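Before any further analysis, backbone shapes were mapped to integers, which produced the following:

***
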Amino acid sequence: MEKNTIKQDSGSTFIKVISYLCVAIFALFCLFPFALMISSSFMNEQEIVREGYKLLPKEISFKAYDLLLNNSTQLVNAYQVTIFITVVGTVLGLFMMSMAGFVLNRKDFKYRNFFSFLIYFTTLFSGGLIPTYILMVKHLHLKDSLFAMILPGVVGAWSIFLMRNFMKAIPDSLYESATIDGAGDFRIYWRIFIPLAVPSLATIGLFSALGFWNEWYNGMLYIDTPAKYPLQYFLQRMVSQTNLGALINSGAVINTADLPTQSIKMATAVLATGPIILLYPFVQRYFVTGLTIGAVKG
């Protein structure tokens, strides 16, 4: 009996060691591109051309960051725009998608299957670019408006269904008892659903925030004023040769003989991804729970 127990313990330990080793190797593979991006952003341009990107540069150079920070006013404006659309879009999206999931899960709402089908239908077909552009510019009058970058990403069909599936894990007795006590639909949603839906809200909020933080396409389509450019679109224009020429003409101090055309790409990636990475540790503990609940419940 003791020998069998010892064998089981040794086998369990061996499996754990192998599992931890595989996870560690996978984590290193995931971290390597990010570490290479950071180190390459500090490399000298000649060294990149001569030897390519590498983790340990021979010479540390800040020319790429100097080039980006020479226009600190525009960079700060781009950060402010991106933070604004990320915060407003994420909060508004969570509010609307959680309410939609709440309604679609209510068994006393007889049209819930019909509206669920309409939401699902949008995942298969869309109006296309030209009708969307006409809607945003001609009918909604959102040309050169920050809300042109917010409204298209506020609601997602997948997130609505995730919220609805999460609702199925909440006992109906809670709603029944709240109704008996005289609580209305919105109060039940706000006082019962929201506190219990934190894991699902954190998961959807992370995806939504990432989408708004990486926003550049709608900014390219609808925004004309440079002060309203989101961060990603602003940095994309910074690395283009046309924009570098405009910076030189505007009086920016740039050494064209040693222009960091390669390292600036990595520097822009660091500036763009760095802040949003800080958000992940705060929602990590809810992330797996939210995805698991949404996947198990059908």
Summary: DSSP finds 15 helices and no strands in the chain.
